[in-house]
Amino acid sequence: MIITSRFFNRSELIGFVALALVLVVILPLSLDVFRLNLVAKYLTYAFVAIGLVLCWGYGGILSLGQGVFFGLGGYCMAMFLKLEASSVENTKIQSTPGIPDFMDWNQITALPLFWQPFHSLTFTVLAIILVPGLFALIIGTAMFKRRVGGTYFAIITQAVAAILTILIVGQQGYTGGINGMTDLRTLKGWDIRPDHAKIILYFFEVFLLFGCILIAQFIRLTKLGRILVAMREQEDRVRFSGYSVANFKIFAFCMAAIFAAIGGAMFALNVGFMSPSFVGIVPSIEMVIYTAVGGRMSIFGAVWGALLVNFAKTGLSESFPQLWLFGLGALFIAVVLAFPNGLSGIWADYVQPRIDRLLASRKSKSGSPWAGNSVADGAPAE
Amino acid sequence: MFGDYSIGDLGSIFVMQGFAGLILFSVYVLMALGLAIIFGQMGVINMAHGEFMILGAYVTWMTSSLFQSYLPSLFSGYFFLAMILAFIASGALGMLVEWGLIRHLYKRPLDTLLATWGLSLILQQTYRSVFGAREVGVELPQWMLGSLKVTDSIEVPINGVFVMGLTVLITIVVSYVLYKSRWGRQVRAVVQNRIMAGAVGINTEKVDRYTFGLGCGIAGVAGSAFTMIGSTGPTSGQLYIVDTFLVVVFGGAASLLGTIASAFSISQTQSTLEFFTSGSMAKVLTLLAVVGILMLRPQGLFALKVRK
């Protein structure tokens, strides 16, 4: 019990330091800017994966619509950047200067009303958090208050992802259609395209990522996290103990949505465009697989899962485009059948005991208070 | 929206669009019947269902090509053989998948979703490697071309009538098998209480395998029907999978009647709206309506009253 009152137990601390070392020191030193920018792109998915750990791993709510929130966050950011890139001087050649180029191509002559507030950065930052948060609140309230969960919830979130994609593609004049919003240039006059800007953005993203990790870890350790786990295992008992199950589920779903939205906003900044191909059904399911590969119960595992699957994807599809889908499909099946707890499960089952034994034999005289604590926690972390 | 058309025009529009919707309805019903058995009865979320359908479509295409090159005299009847072959191919693959994958996951329904999604990716890539990335189209025999003229302004295509007749026939057969035959009784017994069904001497593993096979086989037949209204590509199945799941959920998962009713209402709404707005907006509005209704009535249109 002493151990669980700490913020990180030892193995989690090792995981945290290792991740920090890799992201802050090793990767920036060993990769060129192009590759580092790729890592930044992969890390945007890590935000989504952390959210899914809370909502799916702990709460047992499988959402197949995280792409929706990733997309909402990303589009909010992209709308701000696009407006800045479409200043009157930049768009002199258009028939209506001062509006984004795709609106001009679609014969729209004035900026639509819902675009107006995105001139303000403050509003945009708030919108990145609030729009997906409110959207998740509405979906979550409607579903969980009526005790809809499990497979039905998964299918309905998937349908929402389909709806949003069709809507974005169909409303070309307002959203940029299938091409999305491209040619994003500056953030408050600061050019986001050159190399040094990419590096600054990378570190800013890593900073935010660690912020999210700490928030997730905090939620996991408080009573709230315990109730989430209890709810996943025995929903009725939690309900009969007097907790409002629906409210806890809504909270977990909203947190996951907000994390995903932050990831989406960072995606728009780092990659320089946003398109519906990151919103729909396929990307949403891929986001779930990052979490599954990393380990649905492990916050750090989720980050590693997002990084490794994407590295594998880039590597395989660069050299053997045919093999990638086979590999991804096999990965899905293997993770589900053989390793339900993903990489972190393998780590906790095979690597961690050896380290513990090694350390225990060194300080055998003082005894090891650590052995097996991650099992006692009910949740093997890292 | 309606102002520019006279009453007579509107009537014709509704009939023609309604008929176009009926073809969509047929494909939905055939897809959803298989899924209603697999998802509604067995609780397995089969994301690879679209790929089973496409397998049927490819089998149909291969059969038609074979008949064209070797048996041109019998070409007009190829479709019936193709349908049977499609059923057997998809059903056999389904039983194999049940044996290798699904039977390990009956206690983890959410995980079947991920595993079968992986399966669907593998199948898609297999189709791409074997048949090529280009979409293939089936040549229809002479007697299916053309249309029947009902009135001056209303025409119905013959292949649509044929697909619909087929759908009605298959639906009747499936409901007979599930609700009247001895085997159907066993299936329903296993679904309601696996342990008790096993205790009274039903071989539950065998029943599971054949049930899954039947669901996939029907998807194969849906694929055969699909070749008549669209071209077949490696990813064509994925486009239908979400719609089909919505059809099943909207109808109330365990009810065949509900599945048919929801397939009818969804396809008719979409098809009618398509005439008045763009195709994508019609789809958005239909899906939004379905999701909205499901939020108000999560158990779907026809819910079985069972104690959980």
From TrEMBL, chain A:
Keyword terms of this UniProt record: Cell membrane, Membrane, Transmembrane, Transmembrane helix
Protein name per the record: Urea ABC transporter permease subunit UrtC
Entry annotated with the keyword Membrane: yes
Location within or outside the cell: Cell membrane
Parts of the chain that traverse the membrane: 12-30, 42-61, 121-144, 151-174, 199-219, 240-267, 287-311, 323-348
Membrane topology classification: Multi-pass membrane protein
InterPro entries per the UniProt record, alphabetical: ABC_transp_permease, ABC_transptr_urea_perm_UrtC, LivM-like
Organism: Bradyrhizobium valentinum
Pfam families: BPD_transp_2
Domain of life: Bacteria
GO CC entries: plasma membrane
A Gene Ontology molecular function term of the record: branched-chain amino acid transmembrane transporter activity
Main location as per UniProt: membrane
Automatic annotation (TrEMBL), chain B:
CDD domains assigned to the protein according to its UniProt record, in alphabetical order: TM_PBP1_LivH_like
GO BP of this protein: amino acid transport
GO molecular-function term, one example from the UniProt record: transmembrane transporter activity
Keyword match Nuclease: no
Subcellular location field: Cell membrane
InterPro entries found in the cross-reference section: ABC_transp_permease, ABC_UrtB_bac, BCAA_transport_permease
Pfam families, sorted: BPD_transp_2
Chief place where the protein resides: membrane
GO CC terms, sorted: plasma membrane
Membrane-spanning residues: 12-40, 52-71, 77-97, 158-179, 239-264, 284-304
The entry's keywords: Amino-acid transport, Cell membrane, Membrane, Transmembrane, Transmembrane helix, Transport
Its membrane topology: Multi-pass membrane protein
PANTHER family the record matches: ABC TRANSPORTER PERMEASE PROTEIN, BRANCHED-CHAIN AMINO ACID TRANSPORT SYSTEM PERMEASE PROTEIN LIVH
Family: Belongs to the binding-protein-dependent transport system permease family. LivHM subfamily.
NCBIfam families for this protein: urea_trans_UrtB
Protein's name according to its UniProt entry: Urea ABC transporter permease subunit UrtB
Native source species: Bradyrhizobium valentinum
